[in-house]
Amino acid sequence: MAITGTQNPSQVHRIPQSKYIDGVRWLPPVSAFDRFAAIAYFDADSNSPSIEIHYLNTNPQDPSPVLDPQSSWTSPSRISSLKTAQSTPQPLLAAATFSGSLHVLAPDLINGGAIESKASIEDTGFHSGPVAAVDLRDGGNECVTVGDDGRINLVSFSGNSWYRRFFDANGLVGYSAVKWASPTEFVTGGYGFGLQWWDQRRPGGPVSQFKGNWTQGKTSGIVHSIDIHPSRKHTCLAGGSSGTVFAWDLRAQQQPIVLSGAGTGEAAAPSLSESDVWEVQYDRFTRSSNISNMSSARILPVMICSEDGILAVIEQGEEPIELLAEPCAINSFDIDHQNPSDVICSLEWESIAILTSSRSSSTRLSRGSVQLPRFNKVGNALKLSSTQAISGFSSLVSQKLFSSTPPPQRLQSLTVFAAKGYKMKTHKASAKRFRVTGRGKIVRRRAGKQHLLAKKNTKRKLRLSKMHPVSRSDYDNVIGALPYLKVNRKAK
């Protein structure tokens, strides 16, 4: 991993919530100064799911934003997928549920955010079981839903709402993700890292299909999220199990471009995360490090969130940029289309994180290319044998990066990443992540398993309960954050 030093660091605002968060989405603004977000909640005490519209209240005198609730809509079942449409006359929300229903909502952001139900499909034959994913077509009055039952439904809500069964695999194939590519085309994903390209003008089956056999049976997985860039509709981005992020180019249909995770041979790529990647989106704000030579075959920067609490930006052939590392899972995130530097995330431990950053000034430095200066106040916190690289922000990045410029007199504190990807931030955060065994060995706890969604199976719960030993080269760093630990350095 890398050491990240910043002079203008990203601002991360964590807002605790009283209920579990199933999904978050930015809503299209009605004015230049108003910011709204739709949040899907689940109250475990009363077993009541809901969707609330919140206004992001930013006070110039207080740097911490506040989410003010505007309106609420009670769902008949827990929300399994939440999507918004951008290019529409009024904001639209599509909410799919675990009971197999679909609800299209239209919040009135001008008049207090009142939520109006535009369409509701609750037929027993709509889906057999939960709706795994839904996507709204931008600028249109149609959405597509998929499920583990193998059904693909197209729902129209212009005038009277109705739906039609576009395809039914009769349970032989299940789908877990879907994304519109054009007004008539969409992409689905499912088990085995498989992707299917569909065209409404050619019903009966997918017009193109990608089978994830590039792992050569060494790993099996499932696609959790799909994204397609509006300027590159021939390339489909997917994220799934085992930290896998890859792109499928229709011009080379059986040769994936692996950005992270599973792969063999030329398809192999270093893995930023070893757990499930729950969501992927093209990062429209981060500028490519090789933008002058950017070709249509090169994958644009991608933002991901994972089960082990990582929010990062990945670019083909470059070192990843880690934006956030939490002690719990990051289940979903959304990039504001009007202000792409702002990101909202839902955390496993009933909290919302909002990143307001100057990520355009960040860059990547090759491993070992820059050495850290000596800081008097940092001490042993930087003495990590596993540290090999740093990535800085605007103070370190300029056209004369390697010129002999004297360092600034006032340096901000650094966030240090150790060999296994954990970091020392505060005593409280460190105490949640590290423990000492009876023999005096330091072990770390992975992301918590509280309120796991239905799609997170028992095997994953057991894996999250295990403790992992900390590398001895990082003992000084852990003890520096938790000096009260009774550690036996000679323990085996």
UniProtKB/TrEMBL annotation:
Query: Where found in the cell?
Result: Nucleus
**What's an example GO BP annotation here?**
translation
The UniProt keywords, alphabetically, are: Nucleus, Repeat, Ribonucleoprotein, Ribosomal protein, WD repeat
Q: Which domain of life is it from?
A: Eukaryota
SUPFAM superfamilies in the record: L35p-like, WD40 repeat-like
Q: Where is the signal peptide?
A: none
Q: Which GO terms describe its cellular component?
A: nuclear pore outer ring; ribonucleoprotein complex; ribosome
Q: InterPro entries from the xrefs?
A: Ribosomal_bL35 (IPR001706), Ribosomal_bL35-like (IPR021137), Ribosomal_bL35_CS (IPR018265), Ribosomal_bL35_sf (IPR037229), WD40/YVTN_repeat-like_dom_sf (IPR015943), WD40_repeat_dom_sf (IPR036322), WD40_rpt (IPR001680)
Q: Which GO terms describe its molecular function?
A: structural constituent of ribosome
Renumbered to this chain, the Polar residues biased-composition regions fall at: 69-80
Locate the region Disordered. 58-80
The cross-references to Pfam families, in alphabetical order and at most eight, read: Ribosomal_L35p
- Protein family membership: Belongs to the bacterial ribosomal protein bL35 family.
Which protein, by its recorded name, is this?
A: 50S ribosomal protein L35
Organism this protein belongs to: Corchorus capsularis (Jute)
